[in-house]
From TrEMBL:
Start-end of Basic and acidic residues biased regions: 912-923
Protein name according to UniProt: Uncharacterized protein
Record Pfam families: DUF2339 (PF10101)
Phylogenetic placement of the source organism: unclassified sequences, metagenomes, ecological metagenomes
TM regions (residue ranges): 6-24, 136-155, 161-181, 202-221, 227-247, 254-272, 278-295, 302-320, 332-351, 363-381, 387-406, 413-432, 462-482, 489-510, 516-536, 543-560, 566-585, 592-612, 624-640, 652-671, 691-709, 721-738, 750-771, 783-802, 822-841, 846-864, 876-893
């Protein structure tokens, strides 16, 4: 049995490939002979053959191929028989259907090659049958061939037929045979005039199966059986991988991918007791170089990027093992490898270096080179974190930054690479003193990059590194302006990155605390940018970039020196200067800078909860609120007016809104300081709340009544917001929550000059003023709402004054008396009559209707409440007075108000037309 199995194995791995190879050779020879025979038939065709059908076939090849058979009919054959006695009759080949006849010239009737371009013809679309036989069956056959060999070997091993050495030798023989068969098939396909369907895939599949077999045999000889030492195994596997790449140049990219996969997994397959990073990364660098060269030669860009991706994966795998055990010795080969593979594609990637299309970052980020630069920058950042910012990791990051700057200098369209390295630099500086980026148990059982805690950082090293990178970007960007394309982007890099680095240093090491020494650095940065800007007075882009950096340096200097409100004041004072420079020099970027600074100042003064705890002092008015909000309000308004002379944009609108908000806060906070002495005190005093409401309504009215309201949308919205806030506070706080009738509130001793006048009468006066302003602007809706608000507030105020007159300064402590109830009726009747008189005087029907509404409320009150609660003379007088007033109002309406206008003489009735008969109409 064992001998039989051994014979079967030998037949499978030796005889079958040999027989297949011989069969292919013989088939090729037969096809060549058939081709020669057909050529002879075409050359000795009859001279009397009609030419018109042939010409028609040449004009319409698709029609000829689809409709004309390969063999002519008998009638056609008899008509075209040659008269030449020497011409031989040729019968159709065996197996051909139809009677014997003449063969067509292969040149005139090309044989269809499915899915291939036929010389002199057109591409014939491949059908399902061809797809299945030429592609899927070939691939399935290759897979079955490989699996069959594996299963046979497993069976032979399981029954113990073959010794380890025999197994390895047979595997090597089988692999070599399949590779040889694949190469022979490829050469035959190239030299043969006839191509078998799918023959272009057969060589690659045979060679791939053979390479896999050779690879598995070598690996098994080392790992399973120990027949060869690891160094020999490593060399053999590398040779096989490179051989696969060499065959890929002949057979196609599939073998190239196979060789790349094999080359990348070789270090994982060959184990050693003392892995050397020098050996590993020198090998990986060699493999990456070979793969990228082959990809460049055959235009297989995906193969090169895949090789780089595999190299990056190896770097991450190595870094995941820890920072190394020899104090930095292992870091050098890894660092050199990172820099090498980062630079490797730069020599092969081709870009336009002339003055072509402008640089467009959103489109550039989709290019493979940009994506690879991001991967390389991420690897440099990981080395910083894993190696605890040692010298090698810092040199790797510096080399990467310099490499991409040099590449962008040579090819300016690669400026996107500079952005990726700059992000890695900024990320490294921002996380310098962070012990761990993620918790150590972020992923259980996995050492995540950045999870290991770093040692205590040294400020001196940080300072040198930060200054070095800032100087690098500043100097290179400054030198590139005027020498390299895209001067504006170079200027932005040169001016912006040093300012960002200074901000990160201020954040990481001072935590936004004040330090006079650091403010000198900010002033120095501003001075350097001023000097750089003086070189480009005629170039608007670079001048604007360095002007923005100058402002950033000054702002950082202010932040490092000043605290609390003074910092906001300093930032706001820059706005008029920025606006003046922007308008004089026509620097549009400064408008966006003004917008950013305005946003920061508004956030600090309007959204900062810590300002509620700022000390105010005991002196009213003269406190930090006065300069903390007053100076920014003036600065915002001046900057907005200046920028408005050029353009009305979002910067102007934000500055206007900020000025109005600061003025509102200035007045409101001064009121709080005057009443409670602190900005964080409870908000429950009706005196203070009434004054706030009055101020908001007054400011809203001032904005609404100004002539610029229709031209400035910000003023319109600010007026609407203040009006809505004041009205909402009056309704919810004055009327519902803090109403003296239901809350223990001291209203004052004097009539009119008390909290009631402040809470109800003063807002009613502003509402009346709103009515007049709205009528002048033909704003009917605002006039109607303001008028109703005024009528309601006056009604409440009169009622509250009656209550105060009877109950005293604390009306909440006692209930109403009969006299007080009667007084309500009298006052409401007088108020209704006053409204009615006003409506008659102004000729305003709406006011008269409101007066009737007040009168109806009074009538209901008398009939419902007075009848049940009053007694004696007060009840009688209440009804008598109500009756007199109602009759008087009825008389006034009959006397002065006509339902259809004044009583003029009735107009003469129009003459009726005469009847058709001509008679006068009957009376």
């Amino acid at each position: 049995m064992s001998v039989l199995l051994a014979l079967v194995a030998i037949v499978y791995v030796v005889i079958v490939p040999t027989v297949a190879f011989v069969a292919l050779r013989r088939t090729a020879r037969l096809r060549q002979e058939l081709s020669v025979l057909q050529t002879r038939l075409g050359q000795h065709g009859p001279a009397s053959e009609p030419k018109a059908p042939l010409a028609a076939a040449e004009d319409a090849p698709e029609k000829r191929r689809s409709s004309e058979p390969l063999i002519s009919s008998p009638a056609q054959a008899s008509d075209t028989v040659s008269a030449d006695a020497g011409e031989e009759a040729v019968a159709p080949p065996a197996g051909a259907s139809g009677p014997a006849g003449r063969w067509h010239d292969p040149a005139s009737t090309p044989t269809p090659l499915w899915g291939k371009k036929i010389p002199g013809g057109e591409k014939i679309p491949a059908d399902g049958e061809y797809e299945m036989t030429s592609k899927w069956l070939v691939w399935a056959g290759g897979i079955a061939l490989a699996l069959g060999g594996i299963f046979l070997a497993r069976y032979a091993i399981g029954v113990g037929v073959l010794t380890p050495l025999v197994r390895i030798v047979l595997g090597l023989i089988a692999g070599a045979a399949m590779v040889s068969a694949g190469e022979a098939t490829r050469r035959w396909s190239v030299t043969s005039r006839f191509r078998i369907a799918g023959s272009d895939r057969v060589p690659a599949i045979l060679s791939g199966a053979g390479l896999i077999t050779l690879f598995a045999s070598v690996y098994a000889a080392d790992s399973f059986y120990g027949l060869i030492p690891p160094p020999v195994t490593f060399v053999l596997l590398v040779v096989l991988s490179l051989g696969a790449l060499a065959l890929a140049l002949l057979h196609g990219p599939a073998l190239g991918l196979l060789g790349l996969a094999g080359a990348m997994v070789v270090p994982l397959l060959v184990q050693t007791d003392a892995p050397s990073p020098w050996t590993l990364f020198l090998y990986l660098g060699f493999v990456a170089s070979i793969m990228i060269a082959a990809a460049h030669y055959r235009n297989w860009s995906w193969l090169g990027w895949t090789a780089l991706g595999g190299s990056a994966a190896w770097v991450l795998v190595w870094l995941a093992g820890g920072p190394g055990g020899d104090g930095g010795g292992d870091h050098v080969p890894v660092g050199l490898f990172v820099v090498y593979i980062a630079a490797l594609p730069l020599g092969f990637a081709t870009y336009r270096l002339d003055g072509g299309a402008p640089f467009h970052l959103p489109g550039y980020v989709r290019t493979p080179l940009f994506v690879w630069s991001a991967v390389a920058s991420a690897m440099a950042f990981f080395t910083l974190r894993v190696w605890a910012y040692d010298l090698v990791s810092l040199l790797v990051l510096a080399a990467l930054a310099g490499l991409y700057l040099a590449s962008a200098w040579r090819a300016p369209v690669r400026l996107g690479l500079v952005f990726t390295s700059a992000v890695a630099v900024l990320a490294g500086l921002a996380s310098w003193d962070v012990p761990a980026l993620v918790p150590e148990d972020f992923v259980p059982g996995l050492d995540v990059f950045g999870a290991a805690p770093l040692p205590a950082p040294a400020f001196e090293k940080f300072a040198y590194v930060a200054f070095g990178f800032a100087a690098l970007y500043f100097a290179v960007g400054l030198a590139a302006i005027g020498r390299v394309r895209f001067a504006n982007i170079w200027a932005a890099l040169s001016a912006g990155l040093p300012a960002i680095i200074l901000f990160l240093a201020y954040w990481r090491w001072l935590d936004f605390d004040t330090n006079q020494s650091w403010s000198a650095i900010g002033l120095g940065l501003a001075a350097v940018n001023v000097a750089a800007a003086s070189r480009f007075t005629a170039a608007r882009g670079p001048l604007g970039a360095y002007a923005v950096a100058t402002i950033a340096g000054l702002s950082l200097a202010f932040a490092m020196t000043l605290q609390e409100a003074w910092l906001t004041v300093a930032l706001a004072l820059q706005l008029p200067a920025i606006a003046m420079i922007s308008t004089r020099l026509d620097l549009k970027p400064l408008r966006y800078v003004a917008l950013v600074i305005a946003g920061i100042a508004m956030a600090r003064l309007l959204l900062n909860p810590y300002l509620l705890s700022y000390p105010l002092g005991a002196t009213p008015v003269f406190n930090w609120i006065l300069y903390g909000y007053g100076i920014p309000a003036i600065a915002f308004w001046l900057a907005a007016r200046r920028l408005l002379t050029v353009k009305d944009d979002s910067a102007v609108q934000v500055l206007e809104a900020g000025a109005i908000a600061f003025v509102t806060c200035l007045v409101s906070f001064q009121i709080r300081h005057g009443f409670v002495g602190s900005l964080g005190a409870e908000y429950d005093d009706l005196w203070e709340i009434s004054l706030h409401s009055a101020v908001w309504i007054a400011l809203s009215y001032a904005l609404y009544a100004s002539g610029a309201l229709s031209r400035r949308p910000v003023l319109k919205w600010a007026s609407a917001i203040l009006r809505a806030a004041g009205a909402a506070q009056i309704v919810f706080m004055h009327v519902l929550v803090l109403n003296p009738a239901v809350s223990p509130i001291y209203v004052g001793e004097w009539p009119l000059f008390n909290v009631l006048g402040l809470a109800y009468l003063l807002p009613a006066i502003f509402a009346i003023a709103y009515v007049r302003a709205a009528q002048e602007k033909s704003d009917d809706l605002t006039a109607l709402i303001a008028g109703g608000f005024a009528v309601g507030l006056i009604f409440i105020y009169l009622s509250m004054e009656v209550m105060r007159g009877f109950r005293g300064s604390l009306p909440y402590l006692s209930g109403p008396s009969e006299a007080e109830r009667y007084a309500y009726s009298v006052v409401w009747l007088i108020y209704a009559c006053a409204l009615l008189g006003l409506g008659l005087w102004r000729g305003n029907r709406l006011i008269r209707l409101v007066a009737l509404g007040v009168l109806l409320v009074t009538t209901l009150k008398v009939f419902v409440f007075d009848m049940s609660n009053l007694t004696g003379a007060l009840r009688a007088v209440s009804f008598l007075g109500l009756g007199v007033v109602l009759i008087a109002i009825g008389y006034i309406y009959q006397r002065f108000i006509q339902p259809h206008g004044p009583r003029d003489a009735p107009a003469a009735a129009p003459d009726r037309p005469p009847d058709k008969t001509g008679d006068e109409p009957a009376t």
